[in-house]
Amino acid sequence: MALEHAILVSLLEKPGSGYELARRFERSIGYFWTATHQQIYRVLGRMEGAGLLHVREVPQRGRPDKKEYAVAARGRAALTAWLHEPIEPESVRHELAVKIRGAAFDDPAALISEVERHRKAHDDRLGRYLTGELRDFTGPEAPRPLDAGGELQHAVLRGGIAYERMTIAWLDDVLDTLHRLRTATPRT
């Protein structure tokens, strides 16, 4: 997926400035796609030049005017075309998994702190996802009923929650294995 597609989806959900778009990438879009502020601004400029976006200047008091981006007809057509194209299932590239396999040729216990660090990062991300789910979808302040966009956003978030839970369970299994190997009698 190109960053352009993620930007088009976000701007169709709600037009906004580059700053607002970057904030969305830090929150909900970040569940499945990450981008830096610089990447977002660079791609917005390219998309504007290609006629995929409309831009309007929004005056602000005491600050420079901001640009607010919205999807143009050409951008909607590009997204529609992409939505109808088949994509290949993603394959996993997992550096930590290669390290875990490689630990058989070194001291497996040396990986314990690295796996614990990864587990904490996934646990923290799961916490953010669950907080966002409560805030945006399941909590007392969440809109009811959800529109189609909200239902699909929640489906993506549920996938992220399931992935983080699966990853944490796997990392717990790896930690159990590493601890067991640390206390096991070395093979000769």
Automatic annotation (TrEMBL):
Residues 7-80 form the Transcription regulator PadR N-terminal domain. Residues 92-178 form the Transcription regulator PadR C-terminal domain. Pfam families: PadR, Vir_act_alpha_C. PANTHER family: TRANSCRIPTIONAL REGULATOR YQJI, TRANSCRIPTIONAL REGULATORY PROTEIN. This is PadR family transcriptional regulator. It comes from Streptomyces parvulus.
